[in-house]
Amino acid sequence: MCVFMCWQYEVSKSIKIFMLKKIKEIKYYQEPKICALIIYFYLQQNQQFLIILAHKNQKQMMIKKKNNSKVSEALNLKNISLKIFNQIERESSFDYYSIKGCLQLLTEKKPSYVQFKYIGTGKQSLVLKVNDQFVVKIKKINRHNEKEIKDLDILVNAVRSLGKENYIHQVDDSYFLQSDFQESKIDLFYIQEMEFANGNFEDLFLQLRTKSIELKDWQKERMAIQLFDALNIFHQCGSCHRNIKPSNILYFYENGNFTVKLADLQANNTEDFSQEFNQITNPVSSYKYIDVYQPLEAYLNQYHKKSDLFRLGLVLAQLDTPSFQFTNISFEKYLQFQANFSENIFPISDNIKKDTFLYKIIQRCLHKNPSQRQQSQYYLQSLIERQKSLNKNQDLIIFSIQPPSEEDEEIKLFNILMQQFGQDAQLLANKIIQLKKYACFNALGAGSQGIVIEALNRESNRIVALKIQLIEDQQSKEQLETEVQVVQSLQSQYIVKIYEVEMLKIGKKEFYIIQMEKCDCSLFQYLKANQTQFSIDETLKIQIAYQIIVGLNILHSKNIIHRDIKPQNILVCIQGSNSVQIKIADFGFAKEVNKQTQQASYEHLCILHQSSLKIQQR
Questions:
Q1: Which residues form the Protein kinase domain (predicted)?
Q2: Of 89, 215, 105, nearest to 97 (Cα)?
Q3: Which CATH number is 521-617 given?
Q4: Coil, helix or strand for 171?
Q5: Residue 124: which region, alpha, beta or left (left: phi > 0; alpha: psi -120 to 50)?
């Protein structure tokens, strides 16, 4: 009867149990009718009580279910943390307990985060893929290092304010998981949420090597443009990246096109290196293993913007030649590695390509002397012009600089010419621009007879030196013609090359434009820079002197004397950290003479050759 009444009123099982307990309490269970009346009374007179009872019961069930869910989540986090910890291969500050603690804090802040997959790790960072949608980078920071935390967060927010329309891998959201870290004894975690990429350059290089795939030159140059553009933005913000390497460069592949982005912002700002560099003699020898991407000056706490270029140059060398690979090496190998770029001798068996446009940029980036590395914007502009010459610039997007218009180029050229040619500079600049042959002008030097300008030849796609000279009389014209004839008759690596000569008329005035081989600097500039920054060893001195004598011997073999030999008229092409190519230039005073001079030059050459052999034997 009791059970029947309960079912009739459609009460829950817990209510039925409660009613049976009540019947037992009043001990009227021997009289079924009385029991039924009691139940009826409770159902009719105490409906509110029963509803409260039902709610209380339901809440208890939910708490129990929630507790079971927490146990399940805890077990799940434990398994995920253990799995992630077991996947960490390199040295890291993340152990099982720090991973588990971080994930617990992360899931409490963002309950929607339920799936975590290991991507990679550093000494103080862990990268995970969340919900198969985006990436979370977890940085483990010492609680006492408050300045580093603030600097990093300021930099992240500053770069984020630039917007996502650039080639920097943006941080969509950033926050701390332990806000009271100053008094806490546990680790502080700094979280960065970012978009998910197809992979990094380490993955790409591995695929290119294993599958023997070769990217086209214009594709590699396009990637280099994007990286220089991103680096240029960093440098414009007054910061260095400091950690450029393949694992910190991400790529996105869509519709057959690559987009690359520079990742892993660092909290360190640019140091002031306006003063001269200290002489590098004995780098810190306590480093057992060296980060091979690090330039030598970095180990003397002299890291600056041009140090980023060295690191990027090595990455581009791997991009240009996928078989070129290396890992951490000993300090001795590291010194050998940096000393022999020009000879193509590496602590590995593979050689890098030397016949590509990208290699010319790589070579400049890898120079041991930072003063010989150009600014990132210079390389960026050169690569942009290269893409234009290949008609690959239709969809090219640059964020750090606005491509100069013809009007901008003309204004810049006018400002360079103004100092030398005065009122003729405007018309001369206009005529040079109308040739549509040159771009990216930079002043190199000036003399009494003319000015020398660096420019990019759009047709040949090479950086050249333009010597622009006003012909005022017949003597200066003959002198110029002599110079051109002498150089063009001497086809040698020790004599500067002349590619082309053009004449522009402005009224009655004649301006000659001599398009010449572009070298890095004069011997005068090279010696001055190395006196205060990097010493020139005995072998390099002999190499320089030997090449000068060889060049003179070639002149004398043609019965020509230079008559104006001085450090300013000897040009230097820097080929590596300890190797140069010498070229004799400026033949305006050259003259044909008798054959006696040739024998004197040959004797000097023999003496230097013997000295060179003695040094090699040591």
A1: 113-390, 438-618
A2: 105
A3: 1.10.510.10
A4: strand
A5: alpha
| pLDDT tens digits along 211-225 | 888 899 999 999 999
Residues of the chain under the 50 pLDDT cut: 1-10, 27-30, 33, 48-49, 51-54, 65, 68, 71, 179, 181-184, 269-288, 342-350, 533
CB 486 within 8 A of CB 587: yes
Positive or negative, the CA dihedral 57, 58, 61, 62 is: negative
**Is 144:378 a contact under the CB 8 Å cutoff?**
no
Structure confidence at residue 590 (pLDDT): 82
**Which H or E element spans position 552?**
helix 538-557
pTM of the predicted structure, to 2 decimals: 0.58
Predicted confidence (pLDDT) per residue in 326-343, tens digit: 655 566 666 666 655 544
Angle made by CA atoms 256, 258, 261, in degrees to the nearest 5: 160
Give the three-class secondary structure for 409: helix
CATH fold of the domain at 83-196: Phosphorylase Kinase; domain 1 (3.30.200)
| Nearest partner of 564 among 479, 501, 481, 488, judged by Cα | 479
Spatial separation of the C-alpha atoms in residues 427 and 450, rounded to whole Å: 16
At 160, give phi and psi (nearest 5°).
Answer: -65, -35
Residue 292's pLDDT is 75
Q: How far apart are CA 65 and CA 43, in angstroms?
A: 29
Tokens, residue 490 = 């001497």
Domains 83-196 and 406-517 share a fold: yes
Please answer whether residues 388 and 459 qualify as being in contact, where contact means their C-beta atoms are separated by less than 8 angstroms. Answer: no
Q: Which residues in 70-107 are b (16+ Cβ under 10 Å) and which e?
A: eeeeeeebeebbeebbeebeeebebeeebbbbbbbbbb
Phi-psi region of 240 (alpha: psi -120 to 50; beta: other; left: phi over 0): beta
Q: Which residue reads 């950690």 in tokens? A: 243
**Which phi and psi angles does 108 have, rounded to 5°?**
-70, -35
Distance CA 180, CA 185 (A): 10
Distant-in-sequence, close-in-space partners of 277: CB < 8 Å, separation ≥ 6: 297, 302, 370, 371, 532, 533, 534
- Residue in 494, 489, 540 with CA at minimum distance from that of residue 517: 494
Domain boundaries along the sequence of the chain: 2-45, 83-196, 200-356, 406-517, 521-617
Instruction: State the greatest distance between any 2 C-alpha atoms of the chain, in Å, as a whole number.
Output: 146
CA pseudo-torsion sign 86, 92, 96, 102? negative
Task: Number of helices (H) and strands (E) in the chain: give both, helices first.
Answer: 18, 20
d(CA 457, CA 459) in angstroms, rounded, equals: 6
Residues sharing a CB contact under 8 Å with residue 389, sequence separation 6 or more, in sequence order: 458, 459, 461
